[in-house]
Specification:
By secondary structure, the protein is mainly alpha-helical. The chain contains 18 helices and no strands.
Amino acid sequence: MKGKIAIEQAEWEKAEQYFGQAIEMDPNFVDAYNNRGVCRQKLGRVGAAIEDFNSALAYDPNFTGAYYNRAQAFLDYKEYYQCLRDIQQVAKVYPDTLPVFFTEGLAKMALYEYDDAIIAFGKAIQKDSTNEELWINRASNYYYLGDYSAAKADIQKAMELDEKNPFAFNVRGMIAAAEGDYQSAIKDYGQALIIKGGLPFVLNNRAFAHLQMDQLGAAQTDINNSIQIDPYNQWAYRNKAYFFIKKKNYSRAIALLEKVYEKDPNIPLTTNLLAYAYLQQGQLDKACAWHNIYISKEEIIEAVYEINTCI
């Protein structure tokens, strides 16, 4: 009882302790493992949370709530295929439900499966068309597919529901940047940060717009702040490499970009930037090899640098 009261009051440390005491008293207490897992996830101890959900499911393989909670933990842990497997277990009991569609959409988007994500978010919107988060997420997927008209329509709907949503301003800024309107993009990113400061992905997006406008000082500040908040975001390191290219420090740019590509080969423009950096160093073979990879990917986002020396 104390643990559940602590959860209702968002006192996660206390709740974790209470459920831990319950487990010590009864190591087979399935609900206690599940609830402690929720607390640990809220506290950012996602690995420990997954262990608790594993324990709950070991005692009760039909515990749908534990499957759902583990799916959310896997989402945080960037284990997207495991997330999808768990949410499908939930769907067997609760098919055609918003939480299932929403979780599926987030995982599919993280896996760059944008068409499937759009379908999932569309189904979620049918369940609750007043949830602006659903419209924003679907807009993001339309953006990544280059369907800016559909993305704009969804963002407009989201802003009608919540005119002060920072994530809506962020996506609208992304669309403006993709269409070459970097000044409007910077304005939207700035508005997002006014509403909710310290969003690393917004700082990074604004940095890219600054780089496109050759505002290198502002770009460097945003990149460094973004990495300080989230040192695992490979998009920020791609932008840092782009900054080094602008400064003609091609060796540092190449070193960063190759690490980015190794960790996540799906980040747009990485191969285009690598091709250009190697070209500036006079390494035509490597430049063309990276350029051919860029061409093969058929990226929606337009190349930063045009490479005309490769056949």
